[in-house]
């Protein structure tokens, strides 16, 4: 019986080593989603350890260089020092001491981008590691007030326009499946706290009592002439307490019903066709309802029924935004419940003719919200969501065609309501001629959407205040009320134009790279050291 020859030693050639390298490379690529955290550990360790030997002003590359210098210099200097001791070489020991001082000088050198922020921007000469928070507060309070004028404030019109843009942006983000709309809603909530209008509780309660008595005999969907007392009472309630979102939402519901009632008069069996004057009147009723729902969201971005009502006003001319508003409303209803009675009242104001179109968009919104949360979608919702949108009613199509032609409205001789007031015309001309400052949220939209900035919450500000101390900070929250405030998540380049925009707050957490560029009117609060950078730090910390 023959035996197999013994196995001979296998010699790896260059080709074999190359095949093995290619195999290992593709193996790493295949396992990258599972081992990415392991491969990122060295970078994380370099970043964390780099903060131990650098200040928050240093960039990431500077921190890594300082860490590498320290890791290379310390063992080398120790080895040379031991050799000098063994040989009793005095000159070599002196060289080691000089080299150690040189390394220390490099490590404590200021950051290269520190020159972009003047020394006057650091209020109160805040030390890097204060001993006690109360000592920091005493130091801030003992300094002379900075000779700086108050920061430029936005007008009420500019503030409303900025929040309206955020509302539309949130609806657009939601309809495209972008979860960024949650950040936009958080920014709306931050800016909603900036209203300091006076409130009259007695006048508000009286107006709402009269409204409830007048609305008891009417239903949403009444004509514009019948809801005039209701409009008067709700407008008085909104003026008495501008911080309440209930009056504008109710006013928007009634005006939506008046718009629907007006459309119904020009159906197939109408006595006369829709003309340009009637089309302009309907457009104004719809825009008035939309403005009321926007006002409610400016006050309270999650107010029950406000997004639903806004979706009804967008139903015909902007169905994409209506779908986004319903997605936000569906998520809020799933999280907080909401009132079924409020939804039924708003749907009744929208009218039965538009109900099929609205139900299809609502089913699409429910489907998108369930997919976003990984929930199973009922078959009935899927079937409804797959249906195409019905065509526009003839009255709506005629109205949009007439209003969109740009033909000037010729008022009837006996109809003075369509004639614009002189004060409104002068105000429009004055506002159009004014050169408004650029929006801070629009300038910071790039790094905000990329994730370099996150809307700051109360906890972020409390950490900085705990570092600074409570002394001299009683009116701090009142001075920055309504300012856009962000927490820095990673380093980024500040955009141009911040020196002409409204002020904002940037909070720099510990171990995060400082933004590069000119702060302009932005105030930067360093949570690790308690320092405040920016031209308006003196006003923010001490007031005028």
Major pleated sheet? 5 strands, mixed
Portion in strands: under 5%
Number of strands: 5
Number of domains: 4
Catalogue the unreliable spans.
112-147, 405-434
Our Rg estimate from Cα atoms comes to 33 Å
Q: Into which percent range does the helicity of residues fall?
A: 55-70%
Strand ordering within the main sheet: 1-2-3-4-5
First-last Cα distance:
107 Å
Order of helical and strand elements: HHHHHHHHHHHHHHHHHHHHEHHEEEEH
Shape assignment:
elongated
- Mean pLDDT figure: 76
Number of helices: 23
Keywords: Membrane, Transmembrane, Transmembrane helix
Transmembrane segments: 20-44, 64-82, 94-111
Protein name: Transmembrane protein
Organism: Lysobacter antibioticus
Short characterization:
The protein has helices at 14-39, 41-52, 60-87, 90-108, 133-142, 156-175, 181-192, 201-215, 228-240, 246-264, 276-299, 306-313, 319-336, 340-350, 355-372, 379-385, 394-403, 422-433, 440-443, 445-450, 458-468, 476-479, 537-542, and strands spanning 453-455, 485-488, 504-508, 522-526, 532-533. The chain is mainly α and 544 residues long. The radius of gyration is 33 Å and the shape is elongated.
Name a few traits of the molecule:
544 residues, mainly alpha, five-stranded mixed beta sheet, 23 helices, 5 strands, 58% helix, Transmembrane protein, membrane, transmembrane helix
């Amino acid at each position: 019986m023959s035996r197999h020859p013994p196995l001979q030693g296998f010699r790896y050639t260059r080709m074999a080593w190359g095949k093995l390298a290619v195999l290992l490379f593709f193996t790493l690529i295949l396992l990258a989603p599972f081992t990415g955290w392991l491969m990122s550990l060295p970078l994380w360790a370099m970043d964390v350890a780099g903060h131990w030997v650098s200040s928050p002003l240093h960039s990431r590359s500077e921190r890594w260089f300082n860490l590498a210098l320290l890791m290379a210099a310390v063992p080398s200097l120790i080895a040379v020092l031991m050799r000098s001791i063994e040989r009793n070489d005095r000159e070599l020991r002196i060289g080691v001491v000089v080299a150690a001082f040189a390394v220390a000088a490099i490590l404590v050198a200021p950051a290269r981008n520190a020159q972009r922020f003047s020394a006057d921007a650091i209020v109160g000469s805040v030390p890097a590691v204060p001993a006690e928070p109360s000592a920091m507060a005493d130091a801030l309070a003992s300094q002379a007030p900075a000779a700086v004028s108050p920061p430029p404030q936005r007008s009420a019109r500019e503030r409303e326009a900025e929040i309206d843009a955020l509302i539309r942006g949130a609806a657009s983000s939601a309809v495209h499946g972008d979860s960024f709309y949650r950040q936009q809603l958080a920014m709306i909530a931050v800016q909603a706290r900036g209203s300091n209008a006076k409130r009259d509780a007695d006048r508000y309660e009286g107006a709402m009592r009269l409204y409830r008595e007048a609305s008891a005999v009417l239903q949403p969907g009444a004509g514009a002439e019948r809801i005039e007392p209701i409009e008067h009472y709700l407008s008085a309630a909104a003026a008495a307490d501008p911080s309440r979102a209930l009056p504008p939402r109710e006013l928007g519901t009634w005006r939506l019903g008046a718009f629907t009632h007006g459309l119904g008069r020009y159906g197939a069996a109408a006595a006369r066709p829709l003309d340009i004057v009637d089309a302009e009147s309907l457009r104004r009723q719809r825009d008035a309802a939309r403005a009321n729902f926007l006002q409610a969201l400016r006050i309270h971005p999650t107010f029950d029924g406000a997004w639903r009502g806004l979706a009804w006003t967008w139903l015909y001319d902007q169905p994409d935004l209506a779908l986004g508003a319903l997605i936000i409303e569906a998520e809020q209803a799933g999280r907080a419940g909401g009132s079924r009675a409020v939804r039924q009242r708003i749907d009744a104001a929208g009218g039965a003719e538009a109900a099929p179109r609205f139900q299809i968009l609502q089913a699409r919104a429910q489907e998108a919200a369930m997919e976003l949360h990984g929930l199973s979608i009922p078959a009935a919702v899927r079937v409804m969501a797959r249906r195409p949108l019905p065509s526009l009613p003839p009255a709506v199509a005629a109205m949009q065609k007439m209003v969109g032609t740009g033909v000037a409205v010729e008022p009837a001789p006996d109809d003075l309501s369509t004639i614009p007031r002189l004060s409104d015309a002068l105000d429009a001309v004055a506002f159009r001629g004014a050169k408004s400052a650029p929006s801070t949220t629009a300038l910071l939209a790039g790094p905000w959407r990329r994730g370099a900035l996150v809307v700051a919450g109360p906890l972020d500000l409390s950490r900085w205040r705990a570092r600074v101390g409570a002394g001299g900070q009683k009116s701090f929250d009142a001075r920055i009320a309504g300012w856009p405030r962000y927490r820095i998540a990673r380093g980024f380049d500040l955009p141009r134009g911040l020196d002409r925009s409204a002020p904002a707050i940037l909070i720099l957490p510990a171990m995060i790279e400082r933004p590069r560029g000119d702060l302009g009117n932005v105030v930067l609060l360093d949570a690790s050291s308690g320092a405040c950078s920016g031209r308006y730090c003196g006003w923010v910390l001490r007031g005028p």
